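2024-03-11 09:14:02 INFO receiving multi-entity request
2024-03-11 09:14:02 INFO entity count = two
2024-03-11 09:14:03 INFO echoing inputs for audit
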Amino acid sequence: MLNFVMSYLGSTVTPGQAGNQFWALIYVLIIFAGVSVAVVAMNWIERKALAHFQIRLGPMRVGPHGLLQPIADALKLMLKEDIIPAEADQFVFWVAPLIGLLAAFAVYTVIPFGPSQAVSDMNIGILFMLGVSSLGALGIVVAGWASNSHYPLIGALRSTAQMVSYEVAMGLAVVSAVLMTSLNSTGTGTLSMIGIVQAQQQQGIWFIFKFFPLGLLAFVIFAIAMIAETNRAPFDMAEAESELTAGYHTEYSGLRWSLFMLAEYAAMIAVSSIAVTLWLGGWMRPFPNLLQAPAWQFTFSLFPGLTFLGLAAIAGFGTARMPAHSFFRIQRIGLGVFASLLGSIALLLLLIAVAGRSADTSIAARFSEGIDYVYWFVLKVAIFMYLFIWYRATWPRYRFDQLMRVGWKVLLPISLGVLIATAIVGVIIS
Amino acid sequence: MNAPTNDGTQDVSKRWLSEKPYLDSNELIINMGPQHPATHGVLRVILKLDGERVLGTECVIGYLHRGVEKIAENRTYAMFNPYVDRMDYVAAVSNGLGYCEAVEKLLNVEAPPRAKYIRVILTELNRIASHQLWLGTHALDIGAMTPLFYTFRDREEILKIFERYCGARLTTHAFRIGGCQYETYAGFEKDVKKFLTFVAPKIDEYEALLTTNRIWMERTKNVGVISAADAIALGVTGPVLRASGVKWDLRKAQPYAAYSDFDFEIPVGTKGDTYDRYLVRMAEMRQSLGIIEQAVNVIPEGPIMAKVPKVIKPPVGEIYHSIEAPKGELGYFIVSDGSTQPYRLRVRPPSFVNLQALDIMVRGLLVADVVAVIGTIDIVLGEVDR
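2024-03-11 09:21:47 INFO inference complete, emitting structure
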């Protein structure tokens, strides 16, 4: 048993490849916890960033700078009375948020945080991803239908139509990226998420820059479609607050409502991960082929630690800046503890990086490498998450028919054109 | 599909009952409001929908009815003055101006020039405040959250000036019958001039966010079109009428207060769609800045109150006086029986009359446009219901 568990540590494939269910389960748990934490963090960051866009402060009361606000919210939502409308379809009403949540989380099984840092590497990874993530629409439709109310029904219908139509453009954009993976000596491409990133490494270029501007165009189409896919502003028709009060989740409250929110944010992270994997080199750090010297590798492996050090410095600065009034004492202590926590994480990461420098095969080296992969992946995804907030603060909402027009008459023809052009250019070059 | 036309030839009130959906589909009756985030208060709109397309609407009002006109019959003229502030509470100064001038006309007194200038300055400041609030909420309805906070930040400066002038921010009760009660405070001119230089770039900022924004243009262009003929037939006034291309502004057409002394343009639109109404209101804010700038430099010296008897007892008669409130023509019809209380007082609220145009504007559009059009008409339910 112990051998079975320990034997995986030296391997360079995903637990799914190695057939190691134990480590697969551990990875699943890590990803589940990580995504949940990311959603909570995203909740706080969105409220803070949005507030600063809008010359407000955002949450400031619960914990220093409102850091505990998401936890307070989660507690509140869990303690709320669980209301199911009398006229609603009880079972379907109950099951709808779970469908959305499952669909959003199931996607993470194939997202590669590194060459072996994934639950599994399917040879149809990207198809699995598109298929499962579009199941999220089902949760929304079912929620709208089961609520047996007008506004949720309209919201659900809108979101179905929206998701179905943007899936087409999204799929075509993905195909053009998959096509690029086949541009090697053997001429065989791959649908595996890990394979796609490795293809980018082999070809020495992120697909966003490949066949400029074809890769960029496909990426932009995907980036637009993924906002529509996740029902975020400016395509948040399904929950358009000013029109449909809250759209499909109007009748939901408490824990069920929070499951919808969790699913929405998890889906946002998931689609951003697809975009990062397909076009932005996934887990790869900048210039992995050019700057291959050990010195460079060491420099880049310091980045995670330095980032945490920076965050700790910000938190520490915030602690120092807090008013000296006794009212803020607890908050100051809290923020100080938070800063030192971040600082110790930074130190730990730096230590691992330094320890992993010398020997290539040691556990520390493997650890350092893995941290590096996850760091760059998360950093790229974080940029997308910030963009989601930025969009929401800046743009008005599209109208339903305009959204459809953009999807079918603009994005679809362009993505088809990009696909054909990519194929032609690919054939000519090879 | 037989998209309903807005040519104004049919009887608007009866039209929606007879209309058939263009597909063989069931209609959906949706009750929007009175508790809905985008109906600006307690407006209730019954929507008849075919899918997302609006076949007809019916406004149900009265949720904020306080019987202001009836209250007027039981109050003396001076006592009723604060009540008018509570009608259009985002443009209380305009309400007060209209009422005071109507009673002055009935009494046959005229406010002294200094009072008139103060009135013009405050009213125009209030017009900017009202338009700022309109812009913020209108943009919020269309989905742009951020302008709301910018406009509220800048509106605050206006409210600060009001507060320093008369102690109140919203329901100001700034004017009295015969003039103004308060002399301007020391530094009033300076504050106003500071505000002018402060707010001009802010208006550019709003425009930078919205005017050429693709989504904003798509959401507002050709949405809620109302022709000039329709608008006139329905009695629509204010920016809504001017956006349809009718150059009608009571400040020019029947100058009151000191408006004949100032130079300003009447911005008009061409198409009468939501985008035109947006542009007209933005231009109006700039024109108001111009008026204030002209006025604040030459406030004449002198008294601020005309000679008005302690007990106001207007002679028997009736009067209709209207002013250009931020939302349109605000009129007061007062019948005096010679006693200290009006025999009958009737308000012509611009919001109430403009709201009639909602149905003709949203017919054939989508649900999302209904909230855009409610926003663009710029109603305040306190004024609609009174």
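2024-03-11 09:21:48 INFO post-check: The two ends of chain A are 50 Å apart (CA to CA).
2024-03-11 09:21:48 INFO post-check: The first helix of chain A runs from residue 2 to 7.
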